[in-house]
Automatic annotation (TrEMBL):
This is T-complex protein 1 subunit eta. It catalyses: ATP + H2O = ADP + phosphate + H(+). Belongs to the TCP-1 chaperonin family. It comes from Anopheles christyi. Residues 521-542 are annotated as: Disordered.
Length: 542
């Protein structure tokens, strides 16, 4: 009778070996099925309701993955690669997940037949290196010095990114807007300098790009309507000061023995406020923006002197105004001079939909802009914002890395052909594995066809024939239910998306394949500890 050896705490769940690997692969498959139908111009959208009951309608792979609350440890890697693709390139999040899932699906039979995972991983790495080299070789470089061409290229890339989104009907309009907004930025292309404000109501075409800063009118006190609502060549004071009467009795104790002295205290309070206001007025500023509230006395004081003020301006808007109009955010009124005031050519308050917006335009060193989106439903606007975020990221990437490839499944078919041909030149198990990788790459064009309701097998056969004949840019043409030269059709994507997507997918595949055992510790505290009953305070039971 051998004594039983207990190594792990009771209740620890261990599973290992081949069945574990296969179950991990199956878990990844079910995630892929969740986002599979969102790929491409004919992709469907998902409606996700979270635990608080907030509904989100989205087509963006990364958004869907974030909102799905996934607990399976192996499947979480797919969520991570979708997030990393979103952060790095912005678009192509669905294709990353699809590719990783398909790699695993094609390699699963080999795992079941007992091929060692390390051999499979080696083959995956090899295939990845071949693909990246091939993309770099095929990618089409663009000349930056020709502004017309460069701009047209950026618009095409933005349009391709918007193709698969909710707003693809208006992609012409939005791709121009996105390119305009990115080209106003400075060399580093900081994302947070493009503000996106959403106003419900109106049509999508009413959206506009403000070259400068726009933000919603803040809460205002009486006397606000008497202030002028438009200026030319204005000076702007940016403050971080509260311009309100501070009731000092809250902050200090003052003992007085007659009414006259009490009056002095009150007068002093008022005087402090008036001194502040006079200093601001003397500085010559016509527009006063403050992060902290501006009270009713101050509002009327400014109105009498033809000045405009807004208190409780959100921090990011104040920062963007500072970036656009120059100046500095002051925390005291003592030394407000011309040096710390911002300036812009035109300031106005305009009614947009049901909201009022303050617009600063014609800023001297404006490296910032604001997109004001209009549209019907709240969810629709949020989805539009996500789509524009993808397009903006794409344009930024294209400006930095100036090479493009054809989208619509064209580059995947070409890589698939290249891998298939290469696999026939090597002996050994890798031949089969690289062949499987080649087959897995075809998932992108296949899924594009499936989502649009075409006959995928038929179209893929045509594509294989074209690629074998050397037409390297042939891909799926969604409009005509046929195949077409997507480079001629201007379905362009930055090559960095594809490289990033393949690299991330291969890394995730390798990671999942290299896991052969999962050990899950039980929840600490030996299962669910019974909750103490609700007490009446001080821990006394009812």
């Amino acid at each position: 009778m051998q004594p039983q050896i207990i190594l792990l705490k009771e209740g620890t769940d261990t599973s290992q070996g081949k069945p574990q690997l296969v179950s991990n692969i199956n878990a990844c498959q079910s995630i892929v099925d969740a986002v599979r139908t969102t790929l491409g111009p004919r992709g469907m959208d998902k409606l996700i309701v979270d635990s608080k009951g907030k509904a989100t309608i989205s087509n963006d792979g990364a958004t869907i993955m974030k909102l799905l609350d996934i607990v399976h440890p192996a499947a979480k890697t797919l969520v991570d690669i979708a997030k990393s693709q979103d952060a790095e390139v912005g678009d192509g999040t669905t294709s990353v997940v699809l590719l990783a899932g398909e790699f695993l699906k094609q390699l699963k039979p080999f795992v079941e037949e007992g091929v060692h995972p390390r051999i499979i991983i080696k083959a995956v790495r090899k295939a990845l290196n071949l693909c990246v080299a091939q993309i770099n070789e095929l990618a089409f470089k663009i000349e930056k010095h020709d502004n017309e061409k460069h701009r047209a290229l950026l618009e095409k890339c933005a349009a391709t990114a918007l193709n698969s989104k909710l707003i693809h009907q208006q992609k012409e309009f939005f791709s121009k807007m996105v390119v305009d907004s990115v080209t106003t930025l400075d060399v580093l292309l900081p994302l947070n300098m493009i503000g996106i404000k959403k106003v419900t109501g109106g049509a999508l075409e009413d959206s506009m790009l403000v070259e400068g800063v726009a933000f919603k009118k803040t809460f205002a006190y009486a006397g606000f309507e008497m202030q002028p609502k438009g200026y030319d060549n204005v000076k702007i004071a940016l403050l971080n000061i509260e311009l309100e009467l501070k009731a000092e009795r809250d902050n200090a104790e003052v003992r007085v023995d007659n009414v006259a002295e009490y009056q002095k205290v009150v007068d002093a309070e008022w005087q402090i406020l008036y001194d502040k206001l006079a200093k601001i007025h003397q500085s010559g500023a016509q527009v006063v923006l403050s992060k902290l509230p501006i009270g009713d006395v101050a509002t009327q004081y400014f109105a009498d002197r033809d000045m405009f003020c807004a208190g409780r301006v959100p921090d990011e808007d104040l920062k963007r105004t500072q970036k656009a109009c120059g100046g500095a955010v002051m925390t005291t009124v003592q030394d407000i001079s011309d040096k710390v005031l911002g300036n812009c050519a035109h300031f106005e308050e305009r009614q947009i939909g049901s909201e009022r917006f303050n617009l600063f335009q014609g800023c001297p060193n404006a490296k910032t802009c604001t997109i004001i989106l209009r549209g019907g439903a709240e969810q629709f606007l949020e989805e539009t914002e996500r789509s524009l975020h993808d397009a903006i990221m794409i344009v930024r990437r294209t400006i930095r890395n100036d090479s493009v490839v054809a989208g619509g499944g064209a580059i995947e078919m070409e890589l698939s052909k290249m891998l298939r041909n290469y696999s026939r030149t090597i002996a050994g198990k890798e031949q089969l594995l690289i062949g499987a990788m080649a087959k897995a790459l075809e998932i992108i064009p296949r899924q594009l066809c499936d989502n649009a309701g075409f006959d995928a097998t038929n179209i893929l056969n045509k594509l294989r024939q074209k690629h074998a004949q050397g037409c390297q840019w042939y891909g799926v043409d969604i409009m005509k239910e046929h195949i077409a030269d997507n480079f001629e059709a201007f379905v362009w994507e930055p090559s960095v998306i594809k490289i990033n997507a393949l690299t991330a997918a291969c890394e995730a595949t390798c990671m999942i394949l290299s896991v052969d055992e999962t050990i899950k510790s039980p929840k600490s505290g030996g299962g669910e500890a019974p909750q103490p009953p609700m007490g009446r305070g001080m821990g006394r039971p009812f």
